Amino acid sequence: MSAVDLSVQLGRLRLKNPIATASGTFGYGLEFAGFVDLGALGAISVKGLSLRPCLGNPPPRICETDAGMLNAIGLQNVGIEEFLSEKLPKLHALGATVLANVWGDTEAEYRAVVERIGDDPRIAAVELNVSCPNVVKGGMVFGNDPAALHALVAAVRPATRLPLVVKLSPNVTDIVTAAKAAVDGGADVLSLINTLVGLSIDVETREPKIGFTTGGLSGPAIRPVALRMVWEVRKALPNVPIFGIGGIETVEHVLEFLIAGANAVQVGTANFRDPGVCGRLTRDLAGWCERHGVSRVAELSGTLKTRPRPEKAYV
Amino acid sequence: MVVNEALRILRTVRYDAAHFSVFLQAGTIAATAKPGQFVMVQAGDGLRPYLRRAFSVADVTTVAGVPGFELVVRAVGVGTEALGRFAEGTPIPVLGPLGVPFPIDDLKQSDRVALVAGGIGLAPLVLLARRLAERGIPADLFYGGRNESEVLKRPDFERFLGAHRCRYATDDGSLGKRGRVTDILGSALEAGTSYRRVYACGPVPMFRTLAGMLETAGTEGSFALESEMACGFGVCLGCVLPGRDGRFHTICTEGPCLPPTAIDWSRV
Question: How far apart are CA B63 and CA B155, in angstroms?
């Protein structure tokens, strides 16, 4: 075993390593039990849970794009009750660190699902999805309006004593404004980013390739945007812990996010391509740290060395 | 047990500009793959194609004495085209075997079944024909394609099932009857042939017509369904098709082999 300390601390949330999985790309975790030691992952953010089961959107729901994919699944999930009774006990038995990703159509639904979780000791943190672009109500409606976001987080905050993570939408003019609204409302940790709204067209039929018309773009194509947003939020809110998310495939990508200012990362679409990717990234990160004399991975966070920008254009 | 392994390409056989077979080394997948199951193949480790592609396990066989399995491919886009360009010996990541196979364990030698293939939908039926032949279960093949050259693997079907049990339909009449595969199956049903079960794979219009025919005839069916999928093991939820029960069926884990009565064909 490596001598490198891979553990990271995100406020009150302590993870054994910074490699977590992103909601919507890892099912309820159990589907991956044959490919990854679930207990060895930093954390598992489960498929977004709602108060009642949700059927999701009619197909077609996905299409491939260059270096990524579009999806409009529509938050299909088993609902909080089945998750708590059927999925969570198994995840807990496997030693998984669970982030309960939740969403609702209304502020009241968000609050109700978080109240149902309460202070459940089998859950490490609650992650609010205020950024899904693929539902008609809720989701991104909150994430795109700083005042609504602030009100939502503040309304949910009293419903649990667990750490509250808020997963932000990148589909905004200024990510820092959204980040501040979430933190002012009571967020302990920020996850950024969710998918970017995109469109793909079948030129023969002149129809969108996705049934919902637009979908959320994920995969390596979005990584530079995600890194930029992590960096901006880290600069503006230096004390707020961050999960960096967006197109992570290799240990270099993990390092990019940590250096930009993330304290941990969530791996998303890469899980579809390689169900063992998160186990590999954890091993590769330890190896990289050993080779580079980094004894604590947490030291890497926010170490980007920027050059001064010119004060005026060179003409 | 689903495994994720790197398997070498043993051989690529081209049929025409668009169709080819890729033979992969057996790994641990070939021994456990059942007819109707599929694998997710990563055609290269680059960013285009980004996602793996789903292929039916078409046959479990040997290439020059080396155990392997076969995928029959129609090149329709970047993923399928990339798969045809690999040199023999190249290792490629393969995940499988995946999904629910065709139900065959309950069949008896006194049963008679039909295999219905439309276009590239022949793929999962080759291994099915092999397994049925091994168990001595009589099976009739109804296979439709655009023309004779797009009717693939004929020698294998005719070897497994007997040439007299293989019937063809082509759009241009270059092989068998001119028309659709559902026409020649319909003729057989009208002539009084009855089947314990009809196994099928093909395009949606064929499935839709066939589903109606089987319902009218009161004949059980098992369709190997196709749908675009990102993962193949039930987590992306991208591959769903609408069910008659109002739910969406996850094709990779609830299927790909489902009874046609499970699907709401009016919404596909």
Answer: 16
Same domain, B135 and B64: no
Q: What dihedral do alpha carbons A228, A301, A33, A280 form, nearest 10°?
A: 90
In this structure, are B14 and B93 located in the same domain? yes
**pTM higher than 0.80 for the full model?**
yes
Q: Which domain holds residue B64?
A: 3-98
Of A17-31, A32-46, A137-151, B234-248, the poorest mean pLDDT is in: A137-151
**What fold, for A8-300?**
TIM Barrel (3.20.20)
Q: Are the CB atoms for A265 and A246 separated by under 8 Å?
A: no
Chain B residue closest in CA terms to A76: B237
Q: Work out the number of other CB atoms within 10 angstroms of the CB of residue B247.
A: 16
Residue A59: which of A208, A201, A203, A194 has the closest Cα?
Answer: A208
What is the domain-level CATH number for residue B171? 3.40.50.80
Whether residues B152 and B200 fall in one domain: yes
Helix H or strand E segment including A260: helix A251-260
Return the percentage of chain B with pLDDT > 70, whole number.
100
Active site (annotated) includes residue A132:
yes
Residue B169 lies in a domain: yes
Residues 6 or more apart in contact with residue B24 via CB below 8 angstroms: B7, B8, B9, B10, B68, B69, B70, B71, B92, B94
Chain A residue at shortest CA distance from B43: A273
The residue ranges of every structural domain in chain A are 8-300
B93 and B117: one domain?
no
The tally of domains found in chain B comes to 2
Residue A272 to residue B235, Cβ atoms within 8 A = yes
Are B89 and B126 in a shared domain? no
The pLDDT of residue A313 is 83
Taking the C-alpha atoms of residue B201 and residue B80, their distance in angstroms, rounded to an integer, is: 18
Reported as a single tens digit per residue, the pLDDT across A49-92 is 999 999 999 999 999 999 999 999 999 999 999 999 999 999 99
Q: What is the ipTM of this complex?
A: 0.94
B265 is a domain residue = no
A273–B240 CB contact, under 8 Å: no
Task: Spot the catalytic one: A54, A63, A132, A278.
Answer: A132
